[in-house]
């Protein structure tokens, strides 16, 4: 059956072989198991048919054996009864059943040998299938880890390249230029404010000077002699 070749291929395959030969090792492993299950089902049907043949031949040779024993007993009873002719016919029929028994026994032995062989092969298939199911989880985990590592490596392959480095350098220069322009603009604005403040201070009057002048006038008036 084809299952044995698939079992051998899967048992001998390494995860790297699977990655090289299939786009998706997980799907490949699951397909292997599905194929194995289908082959096991076919093998079970074949084994059941062979067992049925074995049982049929067993029943036939056992029935022939029973007739051999029965005719021998009947021949003895007929002879005891003095009926030699009946005893002779019973022995003749016994001989025919004995011949059939011997022929069917050979067929039964062959059928049993075939059935036993198929039983053993089916048992081996089921054992191997169980091992593969247990191994599948490990292989899938390794395949997923390998795929993840490959994706990470591909994603990181662009890091640190000349284009990326040059791009960062250009952006750094651009930021420095913007900072310099902002600083220059701030200095110009500070100078303009200082000039305006000095000019505004000349004309600024908060009322204190007026009050001071009024007080001076009152003091001068007191010092003048009365007429």
Automatic annotation (TrEMBL):
Alphabetized UniProt keyword annotations: Coiled coil
UniProt key word Coiled coil: yes
Residue runs in coiled coils: 26-135
Pfam families: PspA_IM30
InterPro entries (alphabetical): PspA_VIPP1
Family membership noted in the UniProt record: Belongs to the PspA/Vipp/IM30 family.
Protein name: PspA/IM30 family protein
Organism: Paenibacillus filicis
